[in-house]
Specification:
Elements: E1 3-8, H1 13-25, H2 38-46, E2 50-57, E3 63-70, H3 79-82, E4 93-101, H4 110-124, E5 129-134, H5 139-147, E6 151-158, E7 162-170
Parallel strand pairs: 4-5
Antiparallel strand pairs: 1-2, 2-3, 3-4, 5-7, 6-7
Helix pairs in contact: 1-2
């Protein structure tokens, strides 16, 4: 199979959420992944506080995977606060909110491709850090992130009681 990585837009928010929900439905350990709700994706894209990318299977046009990134600036939600970044750096922090690849498309390194594409765009837009959170026991996602240069900088309760490792990659 061949895939293209493309920017996703506001009009596609429900399709993005559907991919995330489908992946969440198939996860045995529900506490490992907090699925973004359609309305939160819609608001993020509408208010231009985030961007989204999609992996498209070229032959069928099917959406195989998605990546949602948020930019919170100096707002309380910024993981930059958690890791002690100086206030002047917070506008250069972006967060991977969700990465989801449908089961039938796994094994094609789509998560890597999605991450590489968003990293390029963020670096060109002046972002210095890309951060994410991963459940400490999710060795698969952590290994994938580590292979892309992300480092665990702390473990903390986030998202209303979920324990998460906070990972950072310096883009610039």
């Amino acid at each position: 199979m061949e895939f293209s990585i493309e920017r996703a837009y506001l009009s596609e928010y429900q399709a993005l959420a559907d991919v995330i929900q489908t992946v969440w439905n198939g996860i045995e350990r529900k506490d490992w992944f907090v699925a973004d709700e359609p309305e939160s994706i819609r608001c993020l894209l509408k208010e231009e506080k985030g961007i989204a990318f999609k992996a498209i299977e070229k032959k069928t046009g099917a959406m195989a995977g998605v990546l949602i990134v948020a930019m919170y600036g100096k707002a309380e939600e910024s993981l930059g606060h958690d890791v002690g970044l100086p206030k002047e750096d917070l506008d250069t922090v972006a967060h991977v909110e969700s990465v989801a690849v449908l089961p039938e498309y796994r094994g094609f390194k789509l998560q890597d491709s999605l991450m590489q594409e968003v990293e390029k765009e963020l670096a060109l837009s002046g972002f210095h850090y890309l951060m994410c959170t991963i459940h400490p026991e999710n060795i698969y996602s952590k290994a994938n992130a580590a292979s892309q240069g992300y480092k665990v900088v702390m473990t903390k309760e986030k998202y209303g009681g979920y324990i998460r490792d906070i990972l950072v990659k310096k883009l610039i």
